[in-house]
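2024-03-11 09:14:02 INFO queue: dequeued item TIR domain containing adaptor protein, len=254
2024-03-11 09:14:02 INFO validating residues
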Amino acid sequence: MFNPLVSGWFRRLLVKKESPQSSSSPHVQVRTPSPSVDGASSLVTTSTPNPPPPFLSSMIRWSQTYDLCVCHSPVDIEEAIRLATYLEKPACGLRCFLRQRDASVGGAIPTELCQAVQSSHCWALLITPNFLLDDWCQYMMHQALSEGPMSNRIIPLVLNLSYSQYPKELRFYYYKDLSKNPERGYTQVYKTVLKYLEDMDEKDAAKVDCNMHSTSNRLEEASCFPRTKLSSNYQNSEPLLSLQEIERTEAADS
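2024-03-11 09:14:37 INFO prediction written
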């Protein structure tokens, strides 16, 4: 016998079982972003470069117009520009002198080159076969040797040059070969200039401390010296005579 109550209950049960399957789609997958991944990506994008060394803002560095004077032949201008571009990028922040770019137009060449050497902390000599044939390159090389022959300011850079062609004036200097790995050579030039600037800053700081110490010692000596001098003069001086005693002494002598 058909029971309508049982059939209604059975129908509602089927509807409850089918409703979760009909409401969800098996072909759609929803993914929520992972907070850990977003946090890691934000750390990568917001990372800041290392701050420049403190001695790059020292007074001894800014006493010269340029950090490095690049001496090169006009034929090798492209290689010189690559070197200067590497050293002048924000990560390095050095000031370079290039003759074709920074020399005054119409100025006397010897004067311009001499001023460039004298107003630079270090000198990079881009020695190539063209360098050896250029008289002005030879002029700048000898000018740099006269300014600091025994210092660490001269940086020879060799490119497409054999050791037998290396200038005899620079045989006692360690040179860097750009023929094999130019970027590595640029990095060595950068570190050499930084090392020189750091040493100069330390020497200047030590000199200032020494001057302050000597000045304080002089002030202490000056504050003590007058009292000693006055007391010694007072002890060694003869007693003063009155006017009557002087007249008696003169009368007795007469």
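2024-03-11 09:14:37 INFO annotate: Residues 18-28, 35-47, 228-232 have pLDDT under 50 and may be disordered.
2024-03-11 09:14:38 INFO item closed
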